[in-house]
Design a protein that fits this description.
It comes from Iris pallida (Sweet iris). One of its GO terms (molecular function) is ATP hydrolysis activity. This is Cytidyltransferase-like domain-containing protein. It contains 12 helices and 15 strands. It is elongated. By secondary structure, it is an alpha/beta fold. The chain folds into 2 domains: about 180 residues, CinA-like (Maf protein), CATH 3.90.950; about 200 residues, Rossmann fold. The strands form 3 sheets. It has a 7-stranded mixed β-sheet. A 6-stranded mixed β-sheet has the order 2-1-3-4-5-6.
Length: about 375
């Protein structure tokens, strides 16, 4: 790394708390070398993917882009990177997704412009930049270096790191930039619409960050949040010492209309007052949640565990059930199972018929550690709601 300002910028990036998923295609390769050659890269980089081939890019975006080097494509890349960063993130740690796509000098002469697009996406901000380079002014390595400068500067800006930036652009190569900001209502609507996979509310400032990054997830409607929920999470967290407790509400219900933004905010407020983390997602099914929260421990009741392993909910196909849950197992997910009343009888994990291939995914919460028969439905009924 020959330029001192680059090293200073990267050191500042690695010293910041912000982490990123980075998707690069068609250039800016030197930016990765700069990021990785300065100690502390693991503080910043959650994941880097280089979707260079057409097939790789299409799989990344879930479609074939109309144009691979374009504003639309780079914004879709940064959104995909942001969603991936959310899945890998720790509550309380700011994250962003960075997308870059370029069409630079190559072994073959290009009829179109030499250009690149950059986009950075956070929970409430989208920034996009476009630079058209003068043809014939630089070779491939030099064009890659110029675009790498802009990638490092974009990462620094997203990490709120200020430093000297030395641009090597010609005066006629002025970048074109656009940005958009989102308020909380817009963020939640993006989750409901399926554009963003989740919104994380970090209210638990007492729990120390986990070295493993593993989340302990207790899903529910929490209408209302009650002592039973809090006690169950407390017991589950004591069983998984190295984990971050997070309650989770799906804005999408398999059998009901999506929650309104105002209703979500009302339920979130309960967790703010209780000082507990809550995540708003758009996945009502546990096998989808396993993809959303890889490596997590899900806290569930015996009634939910019984449904999870019942072929009835998989089209009556036991093989399909095993295949889906095995996929959840491969993502590193486990289930902590608390006792619940099923058809009038209190049952625990040991009372259920769990397939042998899946038994190591399930861990019992003993009845002597937790049994509380209170329910949100009964609370609402007692309140006349």
């Amino acid at each position: 790394m020959t330029d001192g300002w680059i090293r200073a910028l990267v050191e500042g990036i690695h010293s910041s708390p912000t982490q990123a998923v980075i998707y690069l295609a068609g250039g800016a390769s030197q930016a990765l070398a700069w990021l990785m050659s300065v100690p502390g890269a693991s503080n910043t980089v959650l994941e880097v993917v280089v979707p260079y081939s057409r097939t790789s890019m299409s799989q990344l975006l879930g479609k074939v882009p109309a144009q691979f080097t374009s504003k639309q494509t780079v914004e879709e890349m940064s959104l995909a990177a942001y969603n991936r960063a959310l899945k890998l993130s720790t509550p309380g740690v700011p994250v962003f997704g960075l997308g870059y796509t370029g069409s630079l000098a190559s072994t073959r002469a290009k009829h179109g412009d030499h250009r690149f697009y950059l986009s950075a996406r956070t929970c409430n901000h989208l920034w996009t930049s476009h630079v058209t380079l003068l043809k014939g002014l630089r070779n491939r390595e030099e064009e890659d270096k110029v675009s790498s400068h802009f990638v490092i500067k974009a990462i620094a800006d997203a990490c709120k790191v200020s430093s000297t930036f030395t641009s090597e652009l010609h005066e006629s190569e002025e970048p074109s930039e656009q940005e958009q900001h989102y308020d909380e209502d817009q963020e939640l609507q993006q989750v409901i619409n399926g554009d963003v996979c989740m919104k994380i509310y970090h209210f638990d400032f007492d729990t120390k960050p986990s070295n493993s990054g593993r989340k302990i997830i207790l899903s529910g409607s929490f209408n209302p949040l009650h002592d039973g929920h809090l006690r169950l999470m407390e017991i589950a967290s004591s069983m998984y010492g190295d984990g971050i407790p997070c309650f989770e509400i799906s804005a999408i219900n398999a059998d009901k209309p999506p929650l309104e933004v105002a209703e979500i905010k009302k339920r979130v407020e309960q967790f703010r007052k209780a000082g507990k983390n809550v995540i708003i997602s758009n996945q009502p099914y546990f096998y989808k949640k396993a993809d959303l929260f890889p490596g997590s421990a899900f806290v569930i009741g015996a009634d939910t565990a019984a449904r999870l392993v019942n072929p009835k909910y998989y089209g009556g196909d036991r093989g399909n059930m095993l295949e889906i849950l095995t996929g959840s197992k491969r993502s590193g997910c486990t289930f902590l199972v608390g006792g619940r009343t099923i058809d009038g009888v209190f049952k625990v994990l040991e009372d259920l018929d769990i397939p042998d291939d899946l038994k190591d995914m399930f861990l019992s919460i003993p009845e002597d550690k937790f049994r509380m028969d209170i329910s949100s439905t009964e609370i609402r009924r007692s309140m006349g709601v």
